[in-house]
Amino acid sequence: MQDRPYRRLLVAAVGCLVACLAGCTATVQGPNAVDPAPGPSAQAATVPVASVRVLQLNLCNSGIAGCYTGRSTAAAAAAIRAQVPDVVTLNEVCDDDMPALERALAGVVPGGAAVSRFQAARNGRTGEPYRCRNGRQYGIGIVSRWPSVPGSVAGGGIYPAQDLDDPEERAWLCVDAAASPAVAVCTTHLAYTKREVAGAQCRYLFGTVIAGIRARDGAAPVVLGGDLNLGSGDSPDLQACLPPGSALVDDGGPQHVVGTPEFVVDAFETIDLRGTTDHPGLLVTLGPRPVG
């Protein structure tokens, strides 16, 4: 169920475009930045985009795995208060972790309000939601300072491709956030036991789920944070499932933040969670890709 520890401090960024136009420059702050994938389509470049500050967290909070400490939710709440993200994407959480993290974000963002969504993984042996040791549902979540779009059909589900030897069936979750302009936010935690399964899940996520969101909303911009388990940004397995021109940052391990081609990476850093989980936090600011 849990991934092996990743403690490297190296951070790689893919998909960051530096536009040398008069008075307009996009920059990346961090130890490593590599050339972007092929550029976005003309349609993507014309879609309105606002900056989005994303905090990706894997809390290892099931209570089952060896990386569990019982302290990661409090550390996550402290990181949220310190970093003030627009959205928080969460992996390996229990559903009763969500209220505390929602309160932490609400306490520091303009307007003092936040919303959250949770999607349970599924137990492949019982067909029921996967459970944490405390009996609560286990899975992934999103906390956002922006409310959900009324009437939105974005939601979550279980991937059709799974490792049949692993009882935890992996899930995805997306929400339409009423930012200005609107943006869809997604999270996932792909299989770690078999790379080919993680690759199939990634292709389904971007080729079916996210492609469907963009087709429905007229190529709405999408931001994803998650534990993709497909290597760093230059991994062929990862690149094979991403849209060309995607903005991409990793934590030097399995966690990534991805933006559809309307975005570039403006800044990123890892956040030390002080041993409360086996993953650092990954904080990324995505901004609009310059046109020209």
Automatic annotation (TrEMBL):
Keywords in alphabetical order: Endonuclease, Hydrolase, Nuclease, Signal
GO molecular function annotation: endonuclease activity
Position of the signal peptide: 1-26
Organism per entry: Pseudonocardia charpentierae
Domain Endonuclease/exonuclease/phosphatase, chain residue ranges per copy: 72-246
InterPro entries (alphabetical): Endo/exonu/phosph_ase_sf, Endo/exonuclease/phosphatase
Protein's UniProt name: Endonuclease/exonuclease/phosphatase family protein
